[in-house]
């Protein structure tokens, strides 16, 4: 226990402790010791990094953790120890016990998070679609009528066509059909990462930050990555990330940069062959 407290002092540096945070941390530590549990045992069962557990008990969380992550870890730790998590959250954060909502936009080359459409936009979109459909229907009808008229005229003036002329016309038509087929092949949609190539993600850490990474649905790690760390991961189908401070890392997907625009917290950042999106 003495070693853990010393480690806590080295992590926190000069950060100040509020009386409420110290009081909550003391209750957590007393409850853990009453159950005769070590920090390592709690870490294995809660999946919360031992550094974070020590910081919560010390009442002085690291600057790498935002209030959103502190709320989440504090609630989970309190429930594990059988304490009233709502009461501890209210004491730790007197203003509000609920975490603020976080919304992170992704750059235009990455798949965006789905969002609700305002009613007015629905109305305008509906009018635009109706106008386009009406115009297409009008053009279709006019084309049909013109086609019928042309056929009627050509049937009255049709002349016999020799076999030589038919053969010549067939030869001219053949290259045209091949050209159309080639155009259709080129316009087929392609994945951002080919199916024959695995997803290769590189995480470059600029500042110490807590990161959780899953490969193909399986957790690879959940820990604080120090500044200067370069973490690499490969997957067949998907990679999912939780990042405490998005501005603290640079992400490269198969040597292509993923622009996070310096946002604060990202949860459920899913990377697939189609691109990147924030899961709901």
List keywords for this structure.
Immunoglobulin-like; alpha+beta; 434 Repressor (Amino-terminal Domain); four-stranded antiparallel β-sheet; 280 residues; 46% helix
Tell me what you see in this structure:
With 280 residues, the protein is α+β, with helices and mostly antiparallel strands. Among the domains are: 2-92, Orthogonal Bundle (434 Repressor (Amino-terminal Domain)), CATH 1.10.260; 199-278, Sandwich (Immunoglobulin-like), CATH 2.60.40. It is 46% helix and 19% strand. It has helices at 2-12, 19-34, 39-46, 50-58, 67-81, 85-92, 119-157, 163-186; strands spanning 199-205, 209-215, 218-225, 230-235, 239-243, 249-253, 256-258, 266-272, 275-278. Strands 3-2-5-8-9 form a five-stranded antiparallel β-sheet, with no helix packed on it. It has a four-stranded antiparallel β-sheet with strand order 4-1-6-7, with no helix packed on it. The longest helix has 39 residues, at 119-157. Mean pLDDT is 76; it is low at 1-15, 97-117 and 176-188.
Main sheet makeup: 5 strands, antiparallel
**How many helical elements?**
8
Fraction of residues in H or I helices: 40-55%
The spatial strand order of the largest sheet comes to 3-2-5-8-9
Q: What's the CATH first level of the domain at 2-92?
A: Mainly Alpha
Shape: elongated
Element string (H = helix, E = strand): HHHHHHHHEEEEEEEEE
Strand content: 15-25%
CATH fold-level assignment of the domain at 2-92: 434 Repressor (Amino-terminal Domain)
Mean pLDDT: 76
The secondary structure category is alpha+beta
Assigned CATH superfamily of the domain at 2-92: lambda repressor-like DNA-binding domains
């Amino acid at each position: 226990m003495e070693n853990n407290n010393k480690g806590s002092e080295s992590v926190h540096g000069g950060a100040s402790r509020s009386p409420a945070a110290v009081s909550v941390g003391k209750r957590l530590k007393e409850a853990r010791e009453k159950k005769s549990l070590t920090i390592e045992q709690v870490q294995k069962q809660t999946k919360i990094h031992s550094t974070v557990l020590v910081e919560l008990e010390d009442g002085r969380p690291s600057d790498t953790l935002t209030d959103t992550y502190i709320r989440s870890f504090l609630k989970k730790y309190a429930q594990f120890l059988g304490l009233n998590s709502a009461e501890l959250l209210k004491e730790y954060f007197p203003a509000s016990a609920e975490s603020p909502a976080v919304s992170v936009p992704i750059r235009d080359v990455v798949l965006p998070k789905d969002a609700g459409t305002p009613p007015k936009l629905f109305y305008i979109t509906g009018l635009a679609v109706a106008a386009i459909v009406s115009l297409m229907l009008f053009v279709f009808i006019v084309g049909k009528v013109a086609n019928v008229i042309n056929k009627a005229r050509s049937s009255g003036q049709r002349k016999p066509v020799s076999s030589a002329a038919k053969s010549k016309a067939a030869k001219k038509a053949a290259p045209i059909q091949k050209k159309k087929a080639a155009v259709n092949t080129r316009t087929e949609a392609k994945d951002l990462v080919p199916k024959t190539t695995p997803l290769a993600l590189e995480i470059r850490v600029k500042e110490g930050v807590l990161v959780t990474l899953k490969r193909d649905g399986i957790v690879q790690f959940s820990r604080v990555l120090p500044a200067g760390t370069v973490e690499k991961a490969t997957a067949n189908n998907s990679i999912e990330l939780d990042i405490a401070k998005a501005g603290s890392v640079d992400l490269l997907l198969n040597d292509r940069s993923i622009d996070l625009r310096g946002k604060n917290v990202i949860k459920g950042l899913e990377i697939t062959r189609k691109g990147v999106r924030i899961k709901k």
